[in-house]
């Protein structure tokens, strides 16, 4: 399934780049449509039911597209997803598109969890360090977890940088246990 999502995401990426569409706008419209689909069981039912004609499904899409002011390529992308029965995968496709877009634009996503809310200077410092490590511009999402006691944990893709006090204590515990 990941390969299918990747294929659709790459196809949309190609359209966005070839037609010089503002990437942030395309991503926002994609996310807005995903939210609309996820919030409406009736809409999903219509678009996923094989017995409903493609014309009726596209007419509903056109009404939504007009109200949401979707650009034509995004509207057409959803028409393809509907026609090929890929609406159940739309959230996965959107996540993959965002990953493809970040790669194309030289960005990396970082999830940063700290023990307390960080100041702007602290956020900037962490983002600079991640940028140096990855060689890419950073798009960071922040969260707090008081159980960390202090410091921060940074996740970039599948790599985790644990600079939390809890993480340091765990490392110390492991070192002490292995030296006995």
What this model shows, in words?
The chain is α+β, with helices and mostly antiparallel strands and 180 residues long. It folds into two domains: 2-103, N-terminal domain of the delta subunit of the F1F0-ATP synthase (Peroxidase, domain 1), CATH 1.10.520; 108-178, no CATH class. Helix content is 63%, strand content 14%. It is built from eight helices and four strands. The chain has helices at 2-18, 23-39, 41-48, 54-68, 72-83, 90-105, 120-134, 165-178; strands at residues 107-114, 137-144, 152-156, 159-162. It has a four-stranded mixed β-sheet with strand order 2-1-3-4. Strand 3 and strand 4 (159-162) form a beta hairpin. The N and C termini lie far apart (47 Å). The mean pLDDT is 90.
């Amino acid at each position: 399934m990941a390969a299918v999502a990747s294929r659709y995401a790459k196809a949309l990426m190609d359209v966005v780049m070839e037609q010089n569409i503002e990437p942030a706008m395309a991503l926002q419209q994609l996310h807005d449509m995903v939210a609309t689909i996820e919030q409406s069981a009736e809409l999903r039912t219509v678009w996923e039911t094989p017995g409903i004609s493609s014309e009726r499904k596209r007419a509903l899409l056109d009404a939504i597209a007009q109200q949401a002011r979707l650009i034509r390529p995004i509207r057409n992308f959803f028409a393809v997803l509907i026609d090929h029965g890929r609406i159940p995968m739309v959230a996965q496709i959107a996540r993959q598109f965002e990953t493809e877009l970040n790669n194309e634009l030289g960005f990396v996503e970082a999830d940063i969890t700290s023990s307390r809310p960080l100041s702007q200077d602290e956020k900037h410092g962490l983002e600079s360090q991640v940028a140096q490590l990855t060689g890419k511009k950073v798009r960071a999402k922040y969260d707090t977890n008081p159980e960390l006691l202090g410091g921060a944990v940074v996740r970039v893709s599948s790599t985790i940088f644990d600079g939390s006090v809890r993480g340091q204590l765990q490392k110390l515990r492991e070192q002490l246990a292995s030296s006995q």
